[in-house]
Specification:
Elements: E1 3-5, H1 8-11, H2 17-35, H3 46-53, H4 56-72, E2 75-79, H5 86-95, E3 111-115, H6 121-133, E4 136-142, H7 148-172, E5 174-178, H8 184-192, E6 195-198, H9 212-220, H10 225-241, H11 249-262, E7 267-272, H12 278-292, E8 300-305, H13 314-319, E9 324-331, H14 358-375, E10 380-385, H15 390-411, H16 422-432, H17 438-453
Parallel strand pairs: 2-3, 2-4, 4-5, 5-6, 7-8, 7-9, 9-10
Antiparallel strand pairs: 1-10
The structure holds 5-phosphoarabinonic acid (PA5).
5-phosphoarabinonic acid (PA5) binds near residues 84, 144, 150, 204 and 290.
Length: about 450
Amino acid sequence: MIHLDLKHEHIAGFLSDDELQIMQEEVTVCHDMLVNKTGKGNDFLGWVDLPEEISEVLLSQIEEDARKIREIAEVFVVIGIGGSYLGARAVIEALSHPFAAVSDSFRKGPLVIYAGNSISQDYHASLFELLEEKNYAVAVISKSGTTTEPAIAFRMLKAHLEKKYGKDGARERIISITDQSKGALKKLSTDEGYRTYVIPDNVGGRYSVLTPVGLLPIAVAGYDIRKFVEGARAMRKVCVATPSLFENPAALYAAIRNSFYRMGKQVEILVNYEPSLQYITEWWKQLYGESEGKEGEGIFPAGVGFTADLHSMGQYIQEGQRMIFETVIKVSQASKSLTIPSDPADLDGMNFIAGKSFNEVNGMAALGTVLAHIDGEVPNLELCLTKINEENIGELLYFFEFACGLSGYILGVNPFDQPGVEAYKKNMFALLGKPGYESQTEAIRARLAGNDQA
Ligand code: PA5
């Protein structure tokens, strides 16, 4: 089981036992709101019990569809943005061989790639160059079924699939994951007869990794979704059982990050020492940024990959503005072995670590960094995993979800809405002249003309 390690020396001087005791009272109230579904946004709390509610039938269906896709596709394109792709990508990249894209023998299934997560012309045009040469299938994922980025990517991929495989062939290669009844994607899927999975009404995008949104791509990539769900289930048991900061790591994490926030630490950096965890960080940034950043509140979630970023962001973290705390994901066991060789000439002077494993050296880099950052007034929490596998990643993601719900309630916001996301969309639609936006189009053009004259 993953756990949060608060070595005394890591938080000493930052947080006292008394302060934690005060937080316990708030956490207890918020835990009750989350578990009994009485707090803000409680119509979006379906994710809390999801690990227990995923049925055998659903898991088997997903595994069966994943098997069929693996038979017909060398490439699997996941179309979605935000919560509709980040969870799947986080898990797949954490579990994959780092050079999976380069060789089939480094993969357990098709190469999973992503579309509709930007509006980049060059990215999508390049994607079609690849898909001309490859056998492929797609999952189109959108809860609302109306999001611009995945909609336009799917419009193009659907046409490409139909041209390449014919209408029936395309239908075999498209799986849609969307709302049960609402949205353009639902209607399109019904009209075209696509294999469709439902995103439950009460689960928001960024909390949906344990629905088909995450499970289908993970299964297609060849990973064991049962173990992943098992991990989430084990963490859920611990999280819902008690609000005690001593027994519930998510409660402890939520309490500490809010304490730090109140003392002016407005930025949290999630740190990893494994490049494969980069997308766990991206998923976490979205989860916390979209859940907490509202009403003028919220810890700004940032991420770094060490030791690479010690040679870029390390300087700022050590000596820049003192508004940062760090949460370090610490993985104790590597899956493969690798030892630093001795060199007779020792021109680089590295013989003093010859015979040690990379993991040991990485561990010392991590320890040295934590101590340096603490000296630089950057408190450090350590989130400890034994190794990267399906079960532990399931635990980790559920841990972060539960802690995020709690943390948002402690902060006093609704962690399950995202009203601010609409602002850019309104402007974009007005600028593009979407029907129904005539008055906004006029207003935005006048605004821009005014700016031009200024
Ligand atoms: O977490 C969220 O709710 C958002 O990030 C959504 O997942 C994202 O905006 C995509 O929305 P949709 O799935 O409706 O296309």
